[in-house]
Structure formats: C-alpha cells, structure tokens
Amino acid sequence: MMSAEIFSSLNEALAERFGAGTEVTRRTGVSGGDINRAWMLELSNGSKVFMKENSSRNIGFFIAEEEGLRALKELCGDELRVPEVYALVGDGRSSFLLMEPIEEGCRTAASSEALGRGLARMHLADAHRFAGGGQFGFLHDNYIGAGIQINTPKASWIEFYAECRLRPQFERAASWFEREERMAFDAFLGRLDRYLEEPGKPSLLHGDLWAGNYMIDRSGTPWLIDPAAYVGHAEADLAMTELFGGFDGRFYDAYRETAGIDAGYPARRELYHLYHLLNHLNLFGGTYLRSVKAILEKYLQ
Ligand code: ADP
Q1: What's the predicted TM-score (pTM) here?
Q2: Do strands 203-205 and 230-232 pair parallel, antiparallel, or not at all (unpaired)?
C-alpha cells in the first residue's frame, strides 16, 4: 500500500488539492485535542479544511494517522464515516495533516445506532489486507496517544496481544512494580490463553475508541477520528468504549444485533482495559496505578 505524498508547504498542498492559487482566508482554532493544535481553515474557493499541526519532527504521528484513517475509510461503510485525508505537509518547521471537515451536530438515538451498527459492520469486514502479512497486526507501527504501538504481524491474536500490546507497555511501566510482580507478569503472559480467546475472524479496529474519538455531524451521521488502527479482536474495541464511558445503550444494542457480543466477553473486558490503563500509566503517571494493580491482582499469582 502506497504511503501518502508529503508536501513541502501548505500552499503547495492546497494548490494540488483545490487548484492553483487557493489560499487560506480564515483560520479558526479548534479545541479538544490531546496532542496537536487544530484549526478549521476557510479557503478562497469557499471550501473548508480541518487541519492538525505538530512539530516538524513529529510528522510520524501524522503519517501513522493518515494510514489508519485510510484503512478505516476503506472498511467503514456508508452510515459510519471517516474523514478523507487531503494532504500531509512538512514545511521544515511544522507538520500538518489536512482532512475533510466535520461540522459538529448533536447526538440522537439514530446516530448512536448508526455508530454501533457501523462499527459492527467494520469489524465484520475482511481486514486481511491491513494485517501486514499476518493475521493480526498492521501495515506499520503507529501510536496510541503519544505512546508507540507495536504492530508486528502475528498468526495468533493471543500472542499478538501478549507480545505487541501488554508486554511492551508493562516493560515501559516496569519501575512501578516490584521484581516479584514483574516475574509474575511474565508468567501471566505465558498463560494468557486461559483468559483470552482467538476471534472467529480478525477485525480492523479503531484501536483508541473513547468518546472523544467519534463525532456526530449535523445530519446525525457518526464519524470516527484519531485512530490507532490495527487488525485484532473486535472485543478490544468494544472494551475501549466501556473504559471511560460516553457510549449509550442504543450503541451497544445496535452493535450486538449486527455482529453479536460473545457471552464470555465481560470476563475478558478488563484484560483489554489493561493495555490502555498501562498506556495511561506510562503517559500520565501514577493516577492510573491503582486501576492497573486492581486488574493485575486478579491475574498475577
Ligand atoms: P488529537 O490528535 O490532538 O487528540 P483529534 O484528532 O482528537 O486531535 O482532534 C482534536 C479535536 O478536533 C477533536 O476533539 C474534534 O473536536 C476536532 N476534530 C477532529 N477531526 C475533525 C474533523 N475532521 N473536522 C472537524 N473537527 C475535527
């Protein structure tokens, strides 16, 4: 799969996409991002563009985000949308990601259902071409928030989840744990197949699906933004929606009606939370230690 071209100036990118001489006539700051600065641009041809900015050396975040958005867009269907990436720019000082703008509207019962059904359909779609040559993984490593996310392809989901998700996060967090806990964690990873199951089929996942990473537009259509995409077990996405809340009963009902939710899922949910909680411990520090330890207490012998 080709990676996107990187333009060396914003004007060059706008000219390529919208025609020579297209300029920014207005830029309005957009708040809400964790990592990047963001703007809505109005252009001389009347179009709008959503733009994220980071430092020049952080262009890798946008290269990874573009690849994730492109993968999700291919499989998301009609009722759940993903913004089209217009261009990547690295001008020596900053990097920019330009994409299709979403005009924010209000959540309705229908939009929650469309989000649940759309996510379920995406999980059901054939994700094989995104798995990097294995069954589980992705085309390249990417990011989970500001943390690196390893996507080395594997044939087994449980091995992938142990080696590419839990182990790297735990190793990064090692200083929070005693030596005995570190040894017990290692042994726990070796018996992860007692607690997790291989999925019926691999699914393309959003990967970081908390409530801040979907939007509802003015027509009530849901959109996915800011992914940490990879091919994995659909339950990992479902569990993330439950970690911090913000998804209602209609979302889960529509998901269940479309793709089903296995009866054993609730018992696995917190092991999927563990990855994100360890990542939060690594990124934001000790406030997440209690939640991590509460889960580990049940599994480390
Ligand atoms: P970050 O990578 O910094 O977390 P996000 O991708 O979450 O940034 O975007 C920051 C905010 O910008 C979001 O919370 C949302 O409100 C808004 N946003 C994201 N994508 C779009 C878009 N395509 N169109 C309009 N607004 C968007």
Answers
A1: 0.97
A2: antiparallel
